[in-house]
Amino acid sequence: MDTRTQLSRLGLFDAKVPRYTSYPTAPHFSNAVTPGHFASWIDAVPENGTVSLYLHVPFCRRLCWFCACRTQGTATLAPVEAYVETLKAELDLLKRHLPRGVKLSRLHWGGGTPTLLSPDLMRALIDKVHEVADFADNAEFSVEIDPNELDGERLDVLAAGGMNRASIGVQDFDEEIQQTIGRPQGYDVTREAVEMIRERGVHSLNADILYGLPHQTRSRITETVQKLLSFAPDRVALYGYAHVPWMAKRQQMIPSEALPTPSERLDLFDTARRLFVWDGYAEIGIDHFAAPDDGLAIAQKTGRLRRNFQGYTDDTSEVLIGLGASSISKFPQGYAQNAPSTGVYTGAIREGRFATAKGHAFSGEDTLRARMIEMLMCDFRIRSSELMRDHGISESALTAMFKRVNTAFEGLMEITEDGLFVPEEARPLTRMIARHFDAYDLSKAGHSSAV
Ligand SMILES: C[S@@+](CC[C@H](N)C(=O)[O-])C[C@H]1O[C@@H](n2cnc3c(N)ncnc32)[C@H](O)[C@@H]1O
Ligand code: SF4
Fold first, then answer.
1. 67: Cβ below 6 Å to ligand 2?
2. Which atom in ligand 2 lies closest to the alpha carbon of residue 68?
3. The model's pTM
4. How many whole angstroms from 111 Cα to the centroid of ligand 2?
5. Residues near 278 by beta carbon (within 8 Å), at least 6 away in sequence
6. pLDDT per residue over 288-328, tens digit each?
7. DSSP code string of 72-114
8. Ligand 1 centroid – CA 411 distance (Å)
C-alpha cells in the first residue's frame, strides 16, 4: 500500500486538530486565572533573569478576507493612539511588578499590523519598553510587517530602536489568488519592502506564505516560492490556510469551491517544501524553513528548538509576557490571557489593574504532556531521558504510552530505548500524533485541518 493511501486511512484528510502552540490549547483556558495570578507570576520571575515580551497591535488599515487574526479595521490613527496609551499604561503596571535586573531576551510586535503606528507612536512605545527593561545581550527585536503598510521613516525608527528581525506577510504572489483572498500586493511592493529592510542593516528577514489557498496549483505555488527565494529570506513560515468562515466572518467572501482538497493541500505543501529543501533550507518543525546559519536551524541541530504562541523559536526564556488585548503570557506556573475585547482590556488597564480574563494554571501531568507535544512538534521525537529526568516519569510508563500511540498509527513510528521517533513518511501526521498525548477533551474546540 502506498503512503498516501495509508495516511488517508489513518484519517489525515478528515481530521481537525490543534496547532499546539500551547498545551493545553487556548479553548481550555478558564476564568480561574485572574489578574492576581498574573501579577504574582510576574513577581516570581527571578531577579536578573530574562523574559520575552510580546506587544499586540490589533489594528489594520485593510482587512484581508483570508485573515483569521482578531484585528480591527481603522482608517484613522485616533483609535491606535488611544490603544498605544493603554499599552504604555500596561507597561507601567508591568514595571511595578517586574523584579530587579530583569532583561528582555526577545521583544516582538505582532498583530494585526504594528507598522500602522506613526513614527512618533513607535518611538514612544520603544522608549516605554526601555523604561521597563533593557535588552539582554544578543536580544532580538522582531516586528510583523505588512509590506503595504510601510515607509522609510517608520523603518528608520524601528531600526534605530533595535529591530534586528523583520517578518513580512506575503501569502502568495499570484494575482488571481490575491484577488480571491482579498489581499492585493504587487511583487514590486514586496520587493521594495525587502530592500528597505535590508538597507537598514536588519540582519534577519522572515516571510509568511500560505498553502491551501483558493485556485492554488502546484505550478502557482512553485512560482510563488521561486519569487520568494529571489529575496533569500532567512526564514519562511509556510502555513496551511485555515478556512474557518464560521469564526472569521470575512472568509465568507472566499468561494469554498475554489479551495484545494485535503489531498491537494498535501501536494501543495510538499511541492513548496521540496523547493526550500533543494535551495538548502533546513526544515524546521511542521511548517518553517530556515537558512543553515539562521538561529532556528542552529537551535534545531542542537536540540534547543522551542514552540510558543508565535510559532517556532530559539528563545530559551521560561517567561513570555504578552501585553495588549487578547495577548497570552506563559510562565512556569501556567498561561494567562488578556481580555480579547479592546474595550474590556482598555477599561481594566485604565483602572490600574491587569486585564487578565482567563488562563490555565499547570497541574497534574500538564507540564509533562506539554513537553512531549513540544518535542514532537519541534524534533519529531520524544526523548525519554529528558522526561524521566525533569518529570519523574518511569521508563516503563513512557514505553507503554508510546506503544499505545504506535498501535493507533499502524506501527508507523519507531520506538527505541531513546524514545519515540516519527520517520519522514509519517510526519504529515505529527499534529494527530501530538493529539494522542493531549489529555483534554478536544471535541468542543473548532480546530483546523490536519493537513
Ligand atoms: C498578523 S499577520 C501578518 C502581519 C501583517 N498584518 C501582514 O498582513 O503582512 C500574521 C500571519 O498570519 C497568517 N494567517 C492569517 N490568517 C491565516 C489563516 N486563515 N490561515 C493561516 N494563516 C493565516 C498569515 O500568513 C499572516 O502573514
Ligand atoms: S493579513 Fe495582516 S493586514 Fe491582512 S487583515 Fe490580517 S493582520 Fe491585517
1. yes
2. 6
3. 0.96
4. 8
5. none
6. 999 999 999 999 999 999 999 989 999 989 999 999 999 99
7. EE-SSSHHHHHHHHHHHHHHHHHHHHSPTT-EEEEEEEEES-G
8. 36
